[in-house]
Amino acid sequence: MEPSQLAWDRQPNDRQWKVPEGDDPRTLYQMLMTSVDRFGDLPCFGYIPEKDMPRVHLDYKTFGSLSTAVGKQLASVGVQAGDRVALILNNSVEWAALAYGANGIGAAYTAMYTHQHGQEWAFILNDSTPSLLAVADTTVLDKLVANMPADASKWPSCGILLLGDEEANELPPEGVTVHAWNDFVAAGRNAPDFEIADDPFALNTLIYTSGTTGNPKGVMLSNWNTLSNILCVQSAFTIYVGDKNAAFLPWAHSFGSTFDLHWMIRCGVHINLISDLTRIADECIEIKPAVLLAVPRVWNKFYDRVNAQFASATGLKKVFVNKAQKASAKRIAKAGVQCDAVAPTKFFDKLWDKLVWSKVRARFGGNIRFCMSGAAALSPDVAAFIQQVGFSCYEGYGLTETSPLVSANGWSGPGTSKLNTVGRVANGVTVTIDTDAWDDPDRPDEGEIVVTGPNVMMGYWNNEEATKEVIIEPGTFRTGDLGKLTDGYLSITGRVKSQFKLENGKYVSPSSLEETIKLNPLIEQCVLDGRNMLNTFLVAHPNMEALRTALKGAGIDASGDDAAVCADPKVREFLLANLKKNNMVAPDWKGYEVARTLILDSEEWTTDNEMLTPSMKVKLRNLLAKYDDEIQAIA
Questions:
Q1: CB contact at 8 A, 460 and 468
Q2: Model-level pTM?
Q3: So what's the pLDDT on residue 250?
Q4: For residue 91, is pLDDT > 60?
């Protein structure tokens, strides 16, 4: 392939999407094999085997051969078409090879997070009944043994596949085989070939939803569910063959697997795995990615840090920053585009860009062509700032149940993106707004978003009742999200179930309001609530370091430990006043939405303390229960 070449032609806008046609891949394994034939000797994966080791790379042919060997050995140990293969692994070459190998023989993969609780693994394994389970290391296996039944019949019938070089420590019950990864792959290279699965509507993956209100549900996605998403955006964004990405979104999540893995494989991208999530920027400097997919929290932290440095600039540096900000704002306004990066053309504009913005871009390697944000709402302020930096940043919308893409900015071409929206609906997908599901007279054009298309899940595994609640008819899904359509652009305004009504009868949709709060550099995490109360209240986990600095500047004692500082009424009063002045402001906030009470939590919300789901959504029920006494005391 030539440099700066797109791997595929863009799909025509008027094609049918009900079934594969022409040379469309019919399964993910077939898609991989097409990429192996097309990109052969080009790098496919880059990864760091162990801390302080150099990055290792393998090409498409090598990865294709590995995936095929894994598929052959899966079949040899007894995994059959229609079975499930479970993964408790971090993003890795092995993760990808198992997913593609299973798909090749017609089995489905179901992936879990290594940081999940053992009881959650046990529930998912009991529900999905996989034939084989791959685990990341002995630590995972030890925790699994402690949480799984002692009865071997309750374990995967084809055994446990243990990665890493260590021998198993805690063993599963007698009769459950433990396979070593290297031996498994070596045997697979000499195993008989398998008949390549060819059903586009066969189950490809079970992705278990977060379970914010109960046990997780297994979302059944077919090959065509996922492939229709990938084919829709192929060459709609400028990804060249041989481009690098920096992959850190978990592949156990639909946004990560569909777009940071499968889409990249389709496009001939060199996928570089981030080995340390605390050093994303450092590894990006080494990788120099052209494509970066992330969740809003990454972009929010980037926004906070850069703006904090700008605010502390003095002397000539402050002059340069002001000049650069004004020049980029003027240039973007003149171009009349949103989300798309606008390159400087005039002498001084180029000078300020070189002195300021190029250094900011260098934090992510200096080579990014575009970014995508998904999995939660991205603040328009943050999106506009990223555009000023010189990155094209496109927000998308979707759910696990929609494979995940429903709509996105950017895919319909330059100059077609709009802030305060999640873009145009994807080709082949139809969105309708059910206004009967929403009865706020002040917002009559809003309602529940209903999605119809080839991306809509097959249903929930072993849960017909839950399936019937959301699937109106095959291919049509009630999202539970509130939104509106304006001139073909979709805007998300909240969740049907997260809306609450105040005593005065006014409705509050908290999700977008919470995003404006999290733009404050003193706030890390927050939740707005107030159902059936006179006023709203806010529960927040602050950035303790930044808060102490701000308190010192305001002359407020901050000498106690974190818990004492967060419990101090003066601290809460100071921070609430700051938020009212800088974040809870019109037009984003209406008067009745502004919080009258602030509760500060000194402890970060994590999966370990049961405040977050594995996909980083707040477990509202747990958080409100923690502060029930304070909430009940609110007048």
A1: no
A2: 0.87
A3: 92
A4: yes
Upstream peptide bond of 587 is cis (omega within 30 degrees of 0): yes
The topology (CATH level 3) of 28-293 is Rossmann fold (3.40.50)
Sign, Cα dihedral of 255, 256, 258, 260? positive
Given a contact cutoff of 8 angstroms between Cβ atoms, the answer to whether 26 and 202 are in contact is: no
Provide the angle, in degrees to the nearest 10, between the axes of the packed helices 93-104 and 28-39: 120
* Count, residues in the chain: 635
Distance of alpha carbon 2 from alpha carbon 123, whole angstroms: 49
- Closest by CA position to 94, among listed 161, 33, 36: 161
**What is the widest separation between alpha-carbon atoms in the chain?**
75
Q: Which two tokens stand for residue 550?
A: 């701000």
Q: Which two tokens stand for residue 158?
A: 């084809």
pLDDT at residue number 130: 98
d(CA 68, CA 188): 8
Q: For residues 91 and 248, what is the distance between their CA atoms, to the nearest angstrom?
A: 8
Domain limits, the chain: 28-293, 295-495, 500-632
Quick one: which H or E segment has residue 465? Answer: helix 464-470
C-alpha pair distances (Å), 620 with each of 211, 258, 526, 543, 613: 11, 28, 10, 20, 10
Cα separation of 235 and 241, whole Å?
Answer: 11
Tell me the per-residue pLDDT of 535-560, one tens digit each, with 9 for 90 and over: 999 999 999 998 999 999 999 998 88
pLDDT at 617 over 90: no
Cα-trace Rg, the chain: 25
- Domain 295-495 fold is Luciferase; domain 3 (2.30.38)
